[in-house]
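General statements about sequence and structure are easier to judge against a single worked case. When preparing material for the folding task, we compiled for one chain both its residues and its backbone structure tokens. The amino acid sequence and the backbone structure tokens for this protein are reproduced below:
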Amino acid sequence: MATEKARRDRWGIWRQIAFGFIVGASKFEVGMVIGWSAILPKMQVDNSTGFVVGESDVTWLVASPSIAGLVVTLFTGPLMEATGPSRLLFLMYLPMALLWLLQAFTPYLSVLYLARYLASGIYMVLGPLPATLISELSEPRLRGFLLGFEEVLVALGQMAAYVMADLLPWALATALCAAPFFVLYGCAYFLPELRQFAHAHHYRPVVLLAAVFTLRELGGQYVLFAYTVYLFRQAGVHLDAFLCTILVGVMRVVFTSLGCGVVDRVGRRPLIVTTSLVCGIAEAVGALFLLVDVPGASWVPLAAVLLFVASYGFGLGPIPWALLGELLPTPIRFIGSSICIFSFSLTQFVVSYLFPLLMDRAGVGVALLVFAVAHGVLGLVLWAFLPETRGRTLSDLQDCFSPVRRATEPVQLQNYKKAINS
């Protein structure tokens, strides 16, 4: 009997890991949407297309995730409630692939815009969805790794887009972005379903996480990743801008993978507080050397950006998404997630739209200094208000902001865990 029980336990763990990987792999789309912006310089100089991509087009195409998010996130929670998150994920994989092919082969700029914005809308739906599913289907000992693995896939998708942008024609690189989602479309068919219905209000974790996402975006992470080629050129780095961009992609993959491996040992709270402050310090150092213009120190902005990327990947990038799945109480998880992602989208749009203007009028140094201040404030907010979630069950976490703690998990969660391990 003991041997049979151990076998069932092992099978349940492997099923959780398999389901977690299928769900988390959707975040590959997020990384590709971000990294695809590195393809735009090649599109601008390609005379074989039937349209011209100007500087204003670059701004609007780069800003597409945040603009689409302003609309999409208002409907994400109700859509999850209506269809169920697993079914919604299954229904999105095929459109993901088809939209990449449409971007690759359209002869019209207007259709490119449409496909890019629709793909970005899917990108924003994927913000709360994987973290919510993984948090529900995994045990506490696996949850940190599986939630962190989401961000590893974001980093891999981003690096893959960077490498393809450098090595391949832009149309082929864009078309290849479709390949993973045809495979995932088939795999997602086997995901179990989960539904939760909002019936209570828990304001404090929603407010905290909305503030975390807002301050993180004010720290400039999206524009630093999306404008890498332009940023390195304007900063005067004496290396090929595309090579620097690939270094950024490699650093994010490596350090996100390392962070995924240590998050359950170190804990979410110390890791995210420390990496937030290190990101701010890296931006402040880069800003200082750009503003002072020290002779012979052109390598410092590159080093500062790489330090930022390493720290961001190690904790600040993946942990907020993990907290989204862990801290929001189960009854309001979808709606609360939509509110948090809406604040994320709004801030990302404002930053991505204003960043080119800030670079032109004040320079990269001032922009980095503004971002550094935001990271400093974020570190203080996290230190003051964020509880530790490592090793704690969802039933323990869902009321950690209230003096009254519930003794049992919701019936839906118990049934879902039974479905996963059966």
Q: What stands out?
A: DSSP finds 22 helices and no strands in the chain. Residues 333-362 form the longest helix (30 residues). The domain at 2-417 is CATH 1.20.1250.20 (Growth Hormone; Chain: A;).
